[in-house]
Amino acid sequence: MNENIFRKISNFKMNRRSFLKWSGAVATPAIIGGTAVSSNLVKKASAASSSSKADATIIPTCSTLNCGGKCLIKAHVQDGQIVRISTDNDARDENADNEEYPQIRACVRGRGYRRHIYSPDRIKKPLKRVGKRGEGKFEEISWDEAIKIIAKENNRIKEKYGPASRFSLYATGQTGTIGSGDTVIQRLLAQDGGFLGRYSNYSSGQHGAATPFTFGVSSAGSSCNTLLDSKLIILHGMNPAETIFGHFNMYLRMAKAKGAKIYTIDPRKTDTEVALADDWFPVKLGTDNALIAAMAYVIFTEKLQDQKFLDTFCIGHDEAHMPEGVPAGESYYSYVMGVKDKTPKTPEWAAKITGLPANRIKQLAREVATTKPMAWIQGNGINRHMNGEQLSRGGSIIPILTGNIGISGGWAGPGAPNGTIVKHQEFPIPENPLGISIPCFRYTDAIVRGTEMGAADGVKGLEEGQTLPSNIKMIYNMAGNCLVNQHSDINKTIEILEDESLCEFIVTSDIYMTPSAKYSDIVLPTCTFFEQNDLVPPWSYGQHIFLSQKVVEPLYGSLTEYEWMSKLAAELGIEQEFTEGRTQDEWVKWMIEESKKVDPDFPSYEEMQKNGVYKYKDITVVKFEKQIKDLKNNPFETPSGKIELFSKDLFDMNNPEEIPAIPKHIVVEEGPESELTKKYPLQVFGWHVKRRCHSTWDTSDWMEEVQTQELWINPIDAEKRGIKDGDNVEVYNERGKFVISAKVSSRFMPGVIGIPQGGWYDPDKKGVDRRGAINVLTTHKASPFHCNPQHTNLAEVKRV
Fold first, then answer.
1. 93 has pLDDT over 60
2. Which of 613, 456, 637, 606 lies closest to 537, judged by CA?
3. What letter does residue 197 receive in the DSSP assignment?
4. 273 near 301, Cβ under 8 Å?
5. Is 302 helix (H, G, I), strand (E, B) or coil?
6. Domains and CATH numbers, the chain
């Protein structure tokens, strides 16, 4: 274990001693050598829980953390404290596991939620910065003083720079409907004259930007239960065993039990591959379109394509089916056959780029072309690249060529249909009167050079030739760690935030003093999901919705975001407009009542209190089924009305090197073919890991036992550098460095290294991170459509 983290966890346990005694959650732990023994701690916690089972009240609820599972949590409450947690695991339940109503069980994170609420590291009072920004020096103040300071700064900045100088930062650790704070602050700012809006996201921004150019809509995935009809499932950069997407894992297991084969395409042998897959096809980061082009070469040359499907539903697949006014040689077939560049995209060509042997490429191509229904499922991992838009479009090529679209068991492209399945009333956000928004990834650009940013920088809502009216001068950061930790190039980001002449005021509302909270001027203690009511839909691929129910009173006088923003609204003179006379609980009841108008089967508030969850009945979505059954009356929402392998809109952008009209393999400056590999020869990325949801849980000692934060490196690369398992290593590039222990493993392909994303930035006196925060290595440069490219990085590793 990293020495610094061990020290932090040891101290963490010591500090818990008096806290746990006060809370009654467990008996006072024994102390040996200044450190509580975790096994004894767990045993005593279990003993306390067992002794109180008979008297505890069980209340169903749901986490609002930004986690894909959104599991059912049953809180066992005694004397106002949570003494135990269980989940949706009663096999006698009438809705026990089946194809229509799978259980919604908690993973290791969900089972440890008591560690979330009963942590001595929680922020207990509103804090005002007293040192330099980022120095971590704060003093406790009252809620009234904090609200008055925020109101004063809000009004000053709005009057001096205009309302567009205020920004609600992307990302939040709380993703409920009203409890997230992100929706609530947007409501408040919209009613206070407007704000600089944002669009896109860090997870699937390239998918959302690129998919409409192929299918006309941003979501092209089907519902999970359609996988039960699949004979072959390809998980392309998709790792639901660790990231967790609703019921995806359960349906994969069911599909496998029915005889489906499961393959993974990933530079890392993921837990999904280990648990469920029949084969692993590792490829280097960002080279996926070379793999797909070579597979297409095999399919075309061996005449395995579904030509009838292509000619009926597609344009751009060959020269006979192209938009008018396009020169010859621009079709996907011409690209694959090397008509213009004289380079046929053979498996041998792709093998040199991807690292996957040619015979394996041929094997995969033949199998996907001769097995139907075949589901080629793109995870978000393939789109977070500098060429992510093209990788996203490329991920749909194989199902298009093989006609696996619009049929149950097939799959068209990225994105989930949960918006089709889960119908409910959202917390209402008025239209932003300014109507201006920026790509969320470019918020640091808008701090430094906002008044220079226009349409070319992805700004929406401006007239032609206009730029933003102001730089960002005030940030509201609602329980998010994207201010610093989860944003790219941490060192550059910190440099920007430390300059108080740039962004003049930052407010953070959170539970813990995160690396982002340290760069705030006011820090407010918010509530956990156990301490408030909310209506909570799942992430993607969910088929249910929860009442996240308040089970205990807030600790330390913490307030929910809605509560303190109601006080702020009163200070700003817009309380009635903001609250409409409703408390947070009354808003939740209103949303449930309105949801019943959309879905008559939606349960009442009282029913939701009892059950905690509403599992939808109609959960089947076969994407584009209507189009495939009757194209004439149900055309695709593209300019041609068909699936567009060639996009005339992209062609007209006249930027073929970065934004080609067909999904090509694009060489990027920090890819495996870059000249920079001579200096930094290793590709590095951060994957979502089971011990955290994004950066949440990084301080948990229990989760450290689940998985240690360490660098993974292939034995071949380790041997070249004299690195052995457990050695401390330095990982570095021009942007930064961190020191961490190494895990030598053949689960990473040669030339690629990885660190679990979400480790909290923890610099030493020299500014070298000691926790493995991946974003000290990532770049501020956005992808062509202004999205997050955090998987495209080169670095080097040395033993220290």
1. no
2. 613
3. E
4. no
5. coil
6. 1-49 (no CATH), 127-203+435-532+561-598 (3.40.50.740), 211-414+623-645 (3.40.228.10), 675-799 (2.40.40.20)
Strands (E) located in 583-668: 613-615, 643-644
Phi, psi of 360, rounded to the nearest 5 degrees: -70, -35
Q: Please enumerate in sequence order all residues whose Cβ is within 8 A of that of 337, keeping only pairs 6 or more positions apart, or say none.
A: 297, 300, 344, 345
Side-chain-side CA neighbours of 660 within 13 Å: the count stands at: 21
- Are 231 and 260 within 8 A, CB to CB? yes
Q: DSSP letters along 45-98, please?
A: HHHHHHHTGGGPEEEEEE--BS-S---EEEEEEETTEEEEEEES--TTSTT-S-
Phi, psi dihedrals of residue 713, rounded to the nearest 5°: -145, 140
**Considering only CA atoms, which of 513, 519, 468, 509 is closest in space to residue 166?**
468
Mean pLDDT in residue range 727-737: 98
Give residue 53's Cα distance to chain centre: 36
> What is d(CA 132, CA 138) in angstroms, rounded to the nearest whole number?
10
d(CA 180, CA 178): 6
> C-alpha distances in angstroms, 330 versus 41, 313, 516, 652, 662?
66, 19, 47, 13, 8
Q: How far apart are CA 252 and CA 524, in angstroms?
A: 42
Residue-wise burial string across 341-370, b where 16 or more C-beta atoms lie within 10 A, e elsewhere: eeebbbbebbbebbbbebebbbbbbebbbe
Task: Please tell me whether residue 217 adopts helix, strand or coil conformation.
Answer: coil
Q: Answer yes or no: are the C-beta atoms of 531 and 555 closer than 8 Å.
A: yes
CA distance 65 to 613: 16
Beta bridge partners of 78: 81
Look at residue 482 and give its three-state secondary structure. coil
Q: Which residues contact 632 (CB under 8 A, 6 or more apart)?
A: none
State the CB neighbour count (10 A cutoff) for residue 24: 15
Tell me the helix, strand and coil percentages in the chain, rounded to 5: 35, 15, 50
Is 593:199 a contact under the CB 8 Å cutoff?
Answer: no
Q: Provide the β-strand partners of residue 377.
A: 235
Provide the sign of the torsion angle of the four alpha carbons 602, 607, 612, 618, taken in this order.
negative
Q: How far apart are the first and last CA of the chain?
A: 15
pLDDT of residue 336: 98
Can you give the pLDDT at residue 70? 86
Rounded CA gap, 345 and 351, in Å? 10
Residue 33 falls in which region: left (phi positive, over 0), alpha (psi -120 to 50) or beta: left
Instruction: Give residue 540's pLDDT band: very low, low, confident or very high (50, 70, 90).
Output: confident
Rounded CA-CA distance 702/544 in Å is 29
Integer Cα distance of 712 and 731 in angstroms: 11
CA-based nearest residue to 75, from 542, 549, 509: 549
> What stretch of H or E contains 698?
none
If residue 575 lies in a helix (H) or strand (E), which one and from where to where? helix 575-579
Q: Which residues, at least 6 apart from 727, have a Cβ–Cβ distance to it below 8 Å?
A: 741, 742, 799
Q: 183 pLDDT band (50/70/90 cuts)?
A: very high
- pLDDT tens-digit readout, 683-721: 999 999 999 999 999 999 999 999 999 999 999 999 999
Q: Which residue has the tokens 């760690």?
A: 481
Tokens of 510: 């959170």
The single-letter code of the amino acid at 123 is: I
Stretch 189-215: mean pLDDT, rounded? 98
Q: Give the integer Cα–Cα distance in Å for 669 and 444.
A: 22
Q: Count of CB atoms within 10 A of residue 191's CB?
A: 16
CB distance 262 to 659 below 8 Å: no
Residue length of the chain: 800
